[in-house]
Design goal:
Elements: E1 25-30, H1 37-44, H2 48-59, E2 72-77, E3 83-89, E4 95-99, E5 105-109, E6 114-123, H3 128-134, H4 140-149, H5 155-158, E7 164-174, E8 177-178, E9 183-191, E10 194-199, E11 207-212, E12 215-221, E13 228-231, E14 234-237, E15 244-247, E16 250-253, E17 259-261, E18 266-274, E19 278-285, E20 289-299, E21 308-309, E22 314-318, E23 328-335, E24 338-340, H6 360-377
Antiparallel strand pairs: 1-2, 2-3, 3-4, 4-5, 6-7, 7-8, 7-9, 9-10, 10-11, 11-12, 13-16, 14-15, 16-23, 17-22, 18-19, 18-21, 19-20, 20-22, 20-23, 23-24
Helix pairs in contact: 1-2
Length: about 375
């Protein structure tokens, strides 16, 4: 498994070394608890110099402290004992591919994914997590809902028991196996004060919409198409420093190199590196409000400090620079230098941003019909 193509990084259980036509071999192994990259490379037969070269290459793009069980490593080794390629596959199917020789390079390779649409429904009792789990629905959706509704109300306190929830979502598969995190497309949630419906942005949209009893009550324009929220605004346990700290924005989980766009028009106030934030772009919207886009891997070379940009303008690409454990975007709104909740604050929504577009009832109706159809097909 994975040995027919040394570039795939698909690792089988255990290690093996099939001989290729030019006497190169490919060594593959799934990472176990306690493994280090240097230890795996030694196990593959690389000497200290070659191991250092491979470790340096992959480590230039990925923080090796976050190597974990379930990741996999594939190394193609020439007959002279030198590495040709090394591929580290991480948990979402993304690979870091290092190529050696006359033209060395390191790149992130996104998996080719097939999406499968799923649907489920549940009655909430004492816990939304438990209700989703019992219904075979990914429990991480409870966190997704809490994050996206945080600008409107606290979901946990709004649940008294007996509420019904219906969800439409996508799962992703690569080579027949599920990879990455599932993403929500549509939610119906019946609470005491009415029916809430949520349209998540797909790959073509940057806007989340929340309806109550059929009326649009809130929208949120996000900087990456189709990305999901992965961390909320407020106090949280810091993933690196391992203590409670204020999280001054929201995080979006996204692939390395995904396009980051300005959420509203404004003027570039800062571009460059800043402690903790890594590579950062800061946009000024009027005299007191700014948006910050952090941990970037690159910025749009056409931009300059002082230049005006429109909403939707590409300002950079997702990365993992600064204090970061994996590729994602930290998005922050500051008012008079103080961070505010990007989901709850209304300053950047702009005229008409909370009004219902002509196509939204049709889109919502299509999602409802698809949800009904998939639930009915389950019998």
């Amino acid at each position: 498994m994975g040995n027919d193509d040394p570039m795939t990084g698909r690792a089988a259980e255990g290690a093996d070394m099939p001989t290729q036509a030019d006497d190169a071999v490919t060594w593959t192994r799934v990472v176990d608890a306690g493994d280090s990259l240097s230890g795996l490379l030694a196990e593959a037969g690389l000497d200290t110099d070659a191991s250092t070269e491979v470790t340096g290459a992959i480590g230039s793009e990925y923080d090796l402290r976050h190597l974990k069980p379930g990741h996999s490593l594939a190394v193609t080794i020439s007959s002279d004992g030198l590495p040709r390629t090394a591929t580290l596959e991480i948990e979402d199917g993304t690979r870091i591919l290092a190529t050696f020789g006359a033209a060395p390079s390191v790149q992130w390779v996104a998996p080719d994914l097939d999406s499968v649409r799923r649907a489920g429904e549940a009655k909430i009792g004492s816990s939304i997590y438990e209700a989703l789990d019992d219904a075979g629905i990914p429990t991480r959706f409870a966190t997704d809902l809490e994050l996206i509704l945080a600008g409107a109300f606290d979901l946990r306190t709004a649940l008294a028991g007996g509420e019904r929830i219906r969800l439409l979502w996508r799962e992703y598969r690569s080579d027949g196996r599920e990879v990455g995190e599932p993403t929500i497309d549509f939610v119906q949630l019946d609470l005491a004060d009415g029916r809430y419906e949520i349209l998540w942005p797909d790959d073509k949209s940057r806007r989340t919409r929340i309806f109550r009893n059929g009326q649009l009550v809130q929208t949120f324009v996000q900087p990456i198409r189709g990305a999901r929220l992965s961390s909320a605004f407020g106090l949280r346990m810091h993933p690196i420093h391992d203590n409670m700290r204020m999280h001054s924005g929201v995080d979006f989980a996204a692939k390395q190199g995904a396009v980051v766009a300005a959420t509203q028009s404004g003027k570039i106030a800062f571009m460059g590196k800043r402690s903790g934030y890594g590579l950062l772009v800061e946009i000024e919207h009027g005299s007191s409000t700014r948006t910050l886009y952090a941990h970037l891997s690159a910025v749009n070379e056409a931009l300059q400090v002082g230049r005006r940009v429109g909403a939707g303008t590409e300002i950079g690409r997702v990365g993992s620079t600064g204090t970061s454990t994996a590729p994602h975007l930290h998005y922050e709104i500051q008012v008079k230098g103080r961070p505010v909740s990007p989901l709850a604050d209304t300053r950047l929504r702009g005229p008409g941003n909370d009004t219902q577009g002509a196509g939204e009832p049709l889109l919502k109706g299509g999602m409802q019909s698809q949800l009904d159809r998939l639930l009915a097909s389950r019998g």
